[in-house]
Amino acid sequence: MMSVDENHGPLAGLCVLDLSRILAGPTLTQNLGDLGADVLKIERPGTGDDTRKWGPPYLDAAQEGQPGWSAYYLCANRNKRSAAIDISTAQGQKLVRTLAQRADILVENFKVGRLRKYGLGYKTLARDNPGLIYCSITGFGQTGPWKQKPGYDAMIQAMGGIMSITGAPDGEPVKVGVGIADVMCGMYGAVAVLAALHERERSGEGQYIDMSLFDSQIAWLINEGLNYLATGEVPQRRGTAHPNIVPYQVFAASDGYFMLAVGNDGQFGRFCQVAGLAGLTEDARFATNPARVKNRSALIPLLRARMLRHKVSFWIEALGEANVPCGPINDIAQVFATEQAFVRNMKIHMETDRAAGGGADLIGNPMKFSRTPVSYRRFPPRLGEHTRQILEDDLGLNEEQMQGLIRAGIVAAEE
Known about the structure:
- By secondary structure, the chain is of the alpha/beta class.
- The protein has two domains: 15-220 and 345-412, Crotonobetainyl-coa:carnitine coa-transferase, domain 1 (Rossmann fold, 3-Layer(aba) Sandwich), CATH 3.40.50.10540; 248-333, formyl-coa transferase, domain 3.
- Helix content is 37%, strand content 15%.
- The chain has a seven-stranded mixed sheet with strand order 8-7-6-1-2-5-14, sandwiched between helices.
- Strand 9 and strand 10 form a beta hairpin.
């Protein structure tokens, strides 16, 4: 097995070969790294992960001649070691095949068939390492008429249905504010990898996992997808309103907006008491949630008029005391300023390996374990930061061999 960091995370001792870039694959592998796995990020010399240049903003490396990190790259690449290896070359392919012989998991997001042309496909690597779990992430999967199409998050949000139900009813379709199609594919991929690891404990065999952004996007249409399948009626955009629960949407108070999330009839009754609208609970049109959904066009204007009588702070306090779910519309600065985010360690600080490089605040991992907590061991690496270490420690190459590879442009190493 490859050398691993000293830690006691639930995945400590597992080795991950990460040939992915952008967001879906790196999200998957960062989670494995946070859980204790040793993640080797293989990048193209000279360019590396596309997201290294997806800025501004950048975190300045504070070192003359050293490139900074884009904030985008920082979000999904901690707890990894970076080796810059040109896998389009025969020697580069040989290096990766050797690493794959010792790996537990490989994650990649190349176009369908590309790694097979390099001799790095699943069947080839599994001959030398039958226990390898190999996860491919593509836009549309390894089969079907769209398998060769490129897949980017916004494109998948559009084609996968989520944009058709996001935005104001009378406005244009809107994408979710972050790359949620990528992130959710990475999350499903992580579940699949961990399931395959568990199965390997019984069978001793690895397997191939075919993940696609499109499939994942369809899967997380969840209730709206089932609303269509159950009725044949195509869901429409409703702004912040819920398709199956009323009232469950943003309302304007006299000085701003807040979210009201009434989830059952008891909560609706308590809401009406606070709002001075107790009579609504006696109205057959509004007494039950199915009735409120059917008659939302009559109910919502009544509620909107009442909400405007008080400030946001009144509604948050009064409804909170009545145990009616509601909350302010926090901007991102306000989110990280909350005591809840602080107590839950959702903002962490990591220092770079180089003292002169400073450090950065990063988003914490949401998984909380009672015995084997996540750990933050490595700042997101510079391109090729660990090339020498990996060539020497994991592949057993000597200085002369490494220099030969560097001179030939097969690998790049940070000096």
